[in-house]
User: Fold this.
Amino acid sequence: MDSKKLWSDLQEAVKSAINNDISYTVHIKPSEGIDYNNSVFTIAVPTSINRNMIEFRFKNTIESVLEAHFGQKTKLNIILEYEKDIFNSEDDTETFYPDNIVLNGKYTFENFVIGTSNEYAATAAISASENPGHIYNPLFFYGNSGLGKTHLMCAMGNKIKRENPKLKVLYVTTETFTNEFVDCIKNHKMNMFRKKYRTIDVLLIDDVQFLINREGIQEEFFHTFNDLYTLNKQIVLTSDRKPSDLVTLEDRLKTRFTQGLNIDITVPNYETRLAILRKKSEENQYNIPDEILEYIAKRIKSNVRELEGALLKLISLAQLKKMDIDMELTQYTIDSILPKDGIVKITPDKIMDRICSLYNVTKDELIGKSRIKNLVVPRQVAMYLCSKLTDMNSAMIGRNFGGKDRSTVIYTVQKIEKLLEKDSDLKTNIDYIIKDLQSI
Assistant:
């Protein structure tokens, strides 16, 4: 079966099913069919953003399309493009986990817009790239999602590979590291895993806040870190928080992370936001008037990803409606993303949607009265998030969850707060949902 052609043929059905042209164009259209085996259909997407959006918003819909085509329940598996070689390799060869992962070539220092919010980080990244392993090691970037941490990290990898082709450069997300570790344990291939991670020259690991303390993963990461650090191999890490705030990490890992250079990347100011929009427009050969870019830069203040997303949505709408990009269309586009005060409003419905996607439950089940475990936990998490992320009081939250009383909501919130102190998996899930909600 030609999975690539099959997926291409199915995409029109997927587009109709999700009924969202912008999301389809940005997140699903660039994907590629990789494999269909044992009722699992695997696709590859360019970025982790694409994968996360499909996982949270469209996975159930796509699986319904696949089920209709194959005539049986079919699970959707989503990998990143650089993982295709890993996925397609034979288990019994040394290339099962290749040493070099292809970095995203679009992330370079040349197209990274430097401003006051990231100047220190960019300078340190360039310096470390010119002398990997000997200064600023480890290099730890932290800050909210969408501020350019991954761009900087990959720019380092691309520069090092370009100037030192013989060096082994490895970029992975923490999720990939974790999945490979678990897979290698199951398949008795830990020697291969250690050979991959402990014989490289530059290790770039994204989102270490998701490094959960389970099945010896942090233990393995600790020894990998020590081996590389002792050999003066460059280590670069990113997180949404500074090391001391990573409550799910062991103290010895926090200590290792803080022994290098830790740099906070903050929200870009107006001038930087405008420069980013201009550069993005030039790169894509879009002739957009300055007053339009200035308006977007003033309205979108949160992060680079939202800036670029707003610009892409504006261009897509203009193309779909066959309209010129003017101020009226721009205002309409931005108002559809943000309210006039510029603050993303998180609602109970948005929270429930994310919970339903993550835990694979329906909204009716979420607000119902069933006490089975796979419904109770999602319901409790949803109540907790409503308490923390909205201005609703306990009575209002109760009414949104099938008429539950105020005392039940208070008890539930307190219970989740206590669980978060000891359940790292739960904390990871909640952090992930919050991150997704705040990036809408």
About this structure: Confidence is low (pLDDT under 50) at residues 90-100. The CA atoms of residues 127 and 135 lie 8 Å apart. The longest strand covers residues 32-37.
